[in-house]
Backbone:
């Protein structure tokens, strides 16, 4: 099994890297142990959302170019502004080819509503979360109805509405809440544990229930212009279902993320995997890379739990195994380590410095900025301090940025994945 490029981790970063590599004709495989952060995410891509003083950044690319890139250590500094722009465009075009169109407000951030009813700046969203009609409708300051399906336990309209009412952006809106019934619910309620966003998304995928659902939405909305629904308007057939439901209700339909699993994130995950496979990439799911051999600064091969002693060889490798959440980094009592190759990690050795005293501290937690040390081309160091030239690290495993405090997780994952792909393509052609 010889590859041009083998990627460890099938999250948004590994997939962006893999799709770029296969689109340029490289033989590429992705090994991934489990679900990625996409399954838990809002499904919107944050590029840069907040200044250090928590004020909102309105023009993220301009901000990154002027203030983040010159700082030197941030992953964006290593990519450079042209690569960030190119990577984000490539990502959008890739999803569009799979029928998933993302909205961007030119070079400006727009806002999306979280499941708690907080409002967050972001750069790319699905069109059910933001689009030009929603933007125009918002200016009318009219009525919003936030509806749930009776029996669905992973969304709380009253909580979302209460928090929105506290937000000055929504002070002139009349916000009501309500419930509607889902067809088939009588059958699913025999086992309420099955009544999750994924089950409902499947019901939506079948168009035959739409007229009935649309009627109920209109009746429960009290003449509102907007209706906020938990995000499960279809998964495979989403674009068509969203359009049909908008036509049938005559309302502006807005999807609000639910508790995980995130249908908005899963649509992106599905689209990326489908594109990767369509271009000839090989996605190996459910296998964990548990080591490899680095000889004189070159990663010779890796091995995995399922492949046993088989050595998987490639010209280049990419480590996109995520942060603590995905076990790309692990914490032990007094150390933080990278578990596959034991690469050098930037982290405090004093456990008391890993986290802030308060969970919701404004400055967030220092451990979110820990990660694998790399040079300017994202190559890490082995245990002897030698640069591993044919291994790149991308995405949430990188240090010196804080995806929560800065609001930049998706943007960093895409930009660094794309940047590594460009280096690998160059390397394969030289
Ligand atoms: C819960 C959560 C929600 C988030 N929401 C958002 C959001 O809404 N918008 C935003 O812009 N950013 C968000 N982020 C920030 C997030 O860091 C990035 O957006 C991005 O998803 C990270 O992608 P990644 O590919 O680097 O890593 P991940 O998505 O973490 O993927 C890593 C993958 O590697 C696999 N893996 C790990 N170790 C191995 C191994 N040894 N062998 C094989 N496979 C392995 C894991 O199973 C996983 O599939 C969120 C982060 C988290 C944790």
Residues:
């Amino acid at each position: 099994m010889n590859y041009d490029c083998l990627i460890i981790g099938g999250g948004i970063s590994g997939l962006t890297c893999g799709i770029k590599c296969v689109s340029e004709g490289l033989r590429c495989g992705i090994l991934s142990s489990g679900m990625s952060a996409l399954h838990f995410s809002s499904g919107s891509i944050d590029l840069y959302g907040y200044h250090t003083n928590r004020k909102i950044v309105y023009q993220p690319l301009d901000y990154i170019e002027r203030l983040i890139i010159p700082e030197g250590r941030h992953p964006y500094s290593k990519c450079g502004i042209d690569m960030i722009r190119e990577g984000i465009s490539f990502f959008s075009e890739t999803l569009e080819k799979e029928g998933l169109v993302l909205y961007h407000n030119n070079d400006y951030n727009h806002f999306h509503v979280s499941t708690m009813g907080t409002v967050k700046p972001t750069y790319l969203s699905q069109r059910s979360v933001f689009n030009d009609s929603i933007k125009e409708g918002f200016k009318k300051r009219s009525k919003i109805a936030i509806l749930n399906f009776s029996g669905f336990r992973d969304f709380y309209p009253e909580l979302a509405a209460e928090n929105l009412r506290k937000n000055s952006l929504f002070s002139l809106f009349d916000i009501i809440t309500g419930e509607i019934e889902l067809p088939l619910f009588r059958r699913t309620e025999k086992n309420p544990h099955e009544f999750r966003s994924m089950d409902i998304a499947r019901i939506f995928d079948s168009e035959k229930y739409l007229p009935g659902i649309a009627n109920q939405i209109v009746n429960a909305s009290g003449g509102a212009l907007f209706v906020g629904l938990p995000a499960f308007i279809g998964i495979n057939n989403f674009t068509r279902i969203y359009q049909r439901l908008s036509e049938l209700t005559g309302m502006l339909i807005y999807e609000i993320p639910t508790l995980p699993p995130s249908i908005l994130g899963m649509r992106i995950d599905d689209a990326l995997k489908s594109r990767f496979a369509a271009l000839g990439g090989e996605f190996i799911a459910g296998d964990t890379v548990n080591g490899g051999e680095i000889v004189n600064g070159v990663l010779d091969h890796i091995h995995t739990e399922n492949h046993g002693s088989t050595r998987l060889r490639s010209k280049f490798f990419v480590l996109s195994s995520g942060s603590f959440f995905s076990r790309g980094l692990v914490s032990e009592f007094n150390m933080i380590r990278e578990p596959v190759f034991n690469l050098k990690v930037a982290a405090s050795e004093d456990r008391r410095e890993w986290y802030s005293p308060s969970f919701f501290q404004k400055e967030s937690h220092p451990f979110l900025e820990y990660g694998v040390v790399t040079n300017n081309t994202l190559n890490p160091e082995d245990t002897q301090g030698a640069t591993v030239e044919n291994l790149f690290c991308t995405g949430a495993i990188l240090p010196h940025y804080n995806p929560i405090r800065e609001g930049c997780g998706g943007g960093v994952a895409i930009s660094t994945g794309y940047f590594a792909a460009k280096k690998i393509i160059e390397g394969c052609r030289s």
Summary: The mean pLDDT is 92. The chain has 13 helices and 19 strands. The radius of gyration is 22 Å.
